Amino acid sequence: MLRLTDLELRYGPIRALKGVTLDVAAGEIVTLIGANGAGKSSTLKAISGIHGTSGGSIVFAGRRIDNLPPHEIVALGISHCPEGRRIFGDLSVRENLLMGGYLLAKHEMAGRLDEVLGLFPRLGERIHQAGGTLSGGEQQMLAIARALMCKPGLLMLDEPSLGLAPIMVEKIFETIVALKQTGLTVLLVEQNAGAALEISDRGYVLEIGQVTLSGTSAALRDDQRVAQAYLGG
Amino acid sequence: MNARNLRHDLFFYLGILLICVPFLKIHTLYVLPVFLGAWGLRRFADFAGENRLMVTLRERTVNSVLAHRRVTVGLILAVALLIPLGASDYLIEVFTSVILYAILATALNITVGLTGVLVLGFIGFYAVGAYTTGILTAKFALCGFWIALPLSGLAAMLCGILLGIPALRLRGDYLAVVTLGFGEIIRIFLTNLNGLTGGPNGILGIKRPSFGLFTLDHPRDFYWFALAVLSLVILIVARLVDSRYGRAWIAIRENEMAAGALGINVFRKHLLSFSLSAFFGGIAGSLFAVKQGFISPDSFTFYESVLILCMVVLGGIGNVAGSVTGALLLIAAPEFLREFSLYRMLVFGAVMIAFMVFRPSGLLGSRVIAQEIKDRADDGP
Ligand SMILES: Nc1ncnc2c1ncn2[C@@H]1O[C@H](COP(=O)(O)OP(=O)(O)O)[C@@H](O)[C@H]1O
Ligand SMILES: [Mg+2]
Q1: Could you tell me if B380 lies within 8 Å of chain A, comparing CB atoms?
Q2: Which of A118, B135, B229, B255 is the most exposed place for a label (fewest CB within 10 A)?
């Protein structure tokens, strides 16, 4: 479904990605783990077109998408739920979701809103509340719900569990599994490597802009290097 | 830039700027205590920011106004329509000024309030509109007012697009400074392009428009005409705020990166808001030219840009009704306090700082709070 080949990305003189190759098949949850600054967020930014790439290629559903503008990439069915939630604090929950469905046709909007709220009943209860007044967990729910509004085929989540209480983290991971069951493909970036590898099918380990390990999640969990560096053991 | 931070910064710098204006002429050293005082107030603001009583009181008011929205708007419009019947010509002129500034503030609110872009040289668009009308109808007498009016808007819009395409790639302070430069460049052009603009002497003898047999010569008639234009502008902007575009603008203000990730073409939306803002600015300028009958570069100084920004901020960033209120306060109030004109800037500055402390979202608050309550009302209990 998605294939990155030798992808390179720079921030001025800084080379954040130095040839990343990975692929995601339809219906999978794929986890990207790595230390802070490894280039996980940069990989997602390159895919969603928020940041341009300087080499390599990104192919989605048989089509080159590297360096397309973000709105065209969203239209192709890739949705990016960025790091740090970034919900619109001054817009209500409903308006946040409507923004998520920005590219939907008018007649699809109401139906999609109901579908998404069906997945997140708690947001339905707070539908007219300003986004900024939600709790951290609710804001993360809203960010995911917003990213789902555009009916993506591939959902990219950047550290959805960051800074949340353990109960909320569990909820978020349950939600991701539930989303997979609806046929959605998920590319998940997580610091919380243990939990992420538990729910995902395959994983990649990123170090300083390069993939150093990859395999099924079960294999990665058993790998000594992964255990030492990312699973705290 | 987050709306709350934006508001905070705007209040702070505008307040200081205004307080300093009268002092700058006397002695620069006086600026120091003013800055210190402002800093102290800012500290106090952090402390007093969550006054429960004020918050409830305001929510109550907004609630009841919104519940009778049509009635409120109708009443205000009726009062506005009736003003010239009882007022002296002088007073009517003052209120016509209020209307022109209200158009400007509403226009500027599109960029500052909705997209969260700080524009410091907005008066440049007003000037372009005014001079387009002056040049077309008086200097070269190429066409009448009714053709010059839309052309003035379009000329300002063109400037907006030409400025916006390079400048809107910048953000925050950088963009603010570039737009400030634009306002100054326009004024310098107007002063020096003698053949076209009449240089420092400006353009004389701009005639008031006429409607077939009717002329809008009488201040009262012109007032009504300006009021009609203002109503139209407000209607358009209010519709936009509640539309998909308005939400996209606010989303960009709240978080540009997230807005981009959702498929909003951020640059295009910025350019749209910027050029629309410029268009209405140009329309206001055209009205200004025919109202005065005479224009010169002196009417388009940086001070005017700051004044309009103050109206937006005072009334409430992103709130259309707020911009009009801001214009009313800042134009009409000083007219009635003429004796104190020397201290006008000082009072403005103090008021801005006071607002920062007690009402950081402006007099009428930002759009959201109102929208939230309205959503609830629409859904029923
Ligand atoms: N906007 C930016 N400007 C400059 N350097 C950046 C920027 N964003 C990220 N980087 C650098 O790129 C590298 C990868 O960052 P990132 O992709 O955010 O890592 P991760 O998400 O894995 O923590 C880091 O060295 C980081 O400092
Ligand atoms: Mg990251």
Answers
A1: no
A2: A118
